[in-house]
Amino acid sequence: MKADFDDYKRDVEKNLHIINKLLRTITHDQDTEKINNPELKKTDFRELIAGFNTILDELEILKDKLNEQNKINELRIKIWQIAARKYLSEKSVIQQLLNLVGTFFNVSYASFYRFNDNNNAVCEIQWKNRGNKSTLGLIIPYHIHKHFHQQEYLVFYNGSLPLKIKRDVLQLFKRTGVNSFLAVPYREKGKVSGFFDFSEKNACCKWKPVEIEILKEISKIISIKAAEINAEEALIQITERLDKKVADHTLELQKANENMKKDIKKRRRIEKALRESEELYRTLIFTSPNPVIIIDLDFKIKMINRAVLELCTLHDEGEIIGKNAFNYIAIEDHQNLLDNVEILIKTGSLVITEFCFIKDDGTPYPAELNASVICDSEGDPIAYLCVIRDLTEKKEAEEALEKEKELFEVTLRSISDAVVTISRDKRIVFCNRVAADLISMKHEEITGQDFQTIFRFVDRNNKLYDTMRLLNLFEEGKITAFYPDMRFITPGGKKIPIAGSGAPLRSKNSSLIGVVLVFRDISEQKRLEDELFVARNMESLGVLAGGLAHDFNNILTGIITNISLAHSLLKGSDEVKELIRYAERAALRASRLTNQLLTFSRGGAPVKENSSIKKLITESVNFCLSGANVHCEFFLPDDLWSVEVDRGQVYQVLNNILFNAKESMPNGGKITLTARNIELPSEEEEKEYNTFLKPGKYIIVSIQDEGTGINEENLEKIFDPYFTTKDTGTGLGLTSAYSIIKKHGGYINVNSFPGKGTLFEFYLPATGIVSKVEEIIVQSDFTGCGTILIMDDDEDVRKVLERLLEKTGYKAVSTAEGGQAIKEYKKARKSGNPFDLVIMDLTVRGGMQGMEAVHFILEYDPDARIIVSSGYSNAQIMANYKDYGIKAVIAKPFAMETFLELIKKVCEE
Fold first, then answer.
1. Is the full-model pTM beyond 0.70?
2. Phi, psi of 299 (to 5 degrees)
3. CB neighbours of 746 closer than 8 A, spacing ≥ 6?
């Protein structure tokens, strides 16, 4: 304000200087021209008058400024007068100051905001102009007012809003009707804790510097006022707390003084009583053989007898008198003794059966405490009389007995065998938990019972065994093993195979007082032995089946190839050709039986090839149900996907299920076969067992019969090895079916209810390509070229293959074992006419095996084309032939067309 006033003063002085200059010019005697010129005089006077008018205007403005400055000064005086009032609180001072400056500057609102715990500003105190709605309690979010922390003041109006908060501030303006506001931060102890603001509803209001200065001044004044108020309040609180502490301490001293008087009076009575009875007590105490201790109510030792000195290995009672009795008691027993003091005072005596006493050298020992209260002549307790009895020997005996008992019980509990002790009169004296569980009785129910009525045994002929004979054996005094194949009969009638032994029980003078029987359940052992026996038999059968299948396949290979060759050479009668075709089909069906034997014998991975599940199902049904009184209904759509499977193994699965279905309907019935495509996961398939399958394309095959069904107990075991309900069954049919489907990456499940039939369903991974079923047509004009090496240990097979290949245009060389094949291959390669193809049999009798020869040939010539052909082979090689460098495999027996097509395919690669 002072700077404005100085500016106006300089302007006035400048104008006065101009006027003086004009006056001197007008009155100058030498300037006759200007004096005699009326126009010049007129102009100078005009300028003079204008200058005076300007000065007057500026003086008026200066007057207004001075008046405004005076009002501001008066406002400041009033502000400081309000702040100086000591009886006003901080809130009252703020309210009066807001009323004063709000009225003075005639703003819409004058408010005080304080930050809450969330750093949002809350309007706590406010002055509002007449006609405006109060905004007390209004909350301004932190992201709007956070600018106040680092600035002396902040002005918000439409043109000055930061872009980041413009939308939020406009919403705030709209809600309150305010168009601009001026904010000055308020600090307490150097930290911004709120702000003062002027808010104006007029649009585009710009705040004057004086308003900013007044708000800053008010903020500082309130900060000073708050500090003063806080200091005064703190001083008052400290004074009040000091006064209260003095009063409380005085009261405590008074109570302590009264208690001290009471204690002194009581102590005097006790001392008097003690003096009166000291001699009597001393005589009684010192004559007692047990340690006796007298302790006062503070548990200090007042008197002891000689037995205490001996117990603590001390020489003089002065070493223990006056000490706290709890120093000689184990810490873990302190609380127990303290808890019993109240009972001791009420009852007058107390026996604590056991606690741990600590000798002066720190050695603990168990003791028994007998305590009683010593009272004065007025009946008030003054001390405790404690008699201690050493329990060391008793404790050691109890612990030894307990350890022996615990060891015995733990031993018997840990034994998995049944243990029974029998007296001479054949009564049960003891049995462990295992023995009690065998007869489903409790231990206390068994003891004392007659052994022969509780435990019953049968011999190898299932005759009830005479237990007396067994017990009489122990008269000889030797440990005797039970007879082999002895079985125990449970209360439910179940016969459990057992093994065990018995031994005599003798007294100290060696007389027989009873026997101990120890036996165990060997059901699991017997089952494993039986399974091992069956497994070994089945393994031998598998080896035999594989050998037979190999020889039979070689024979069938010659039969089928010769039939096919005869069919191709035969000209003329169609009827004869048809008969030859029937003979060929019959031979192929016989080959399927040998393939089942091979699948069982090798038990390996499937040899997969692209197949039509529709064809597999129909051929299996025609084979299994031929001539049976069972009708089969098919639901096999034409768009079924093809599958990569071992045809022989899938035939075996279908045959096993179909044979079981047929046998479950001896009086005839219907079998429904369904197949459909499915891609997992699928919403249509919500069956629980789908969780065992990987996501992908599958074909579901369902076989539903109308037979007798399977009960729930047997249904859980249907896929278990060796489980069968047939008198002549082996229990391997469905087990092998389960294994085959699993090895193919599929899943098989069964649902059945007695009397309502059985449903088998199995999943097989599919290719996603619709299969096409095509009959193989004999190409009588099939021709080829090249030289082929044949290695087979069967002469008939070699001859028929040579004849077949030469007939179709190939040149064939044959050998009987692998070594000869290697020599022929090397010889042909060195001559410059190498073999185009090698057909190698894997199983050779009396020479180098086919696989060994394959390794030698591929090592000699990595580009050699080799086809493996065998009627009995390692399934791993047949299933993964490409891993061994083999181009293709073909299982014996095979059709001529299949054989020639495979040769053509490999030669053209």
1. no
2. 65, 25
3. 693, 698, 762, 763, 764, 765
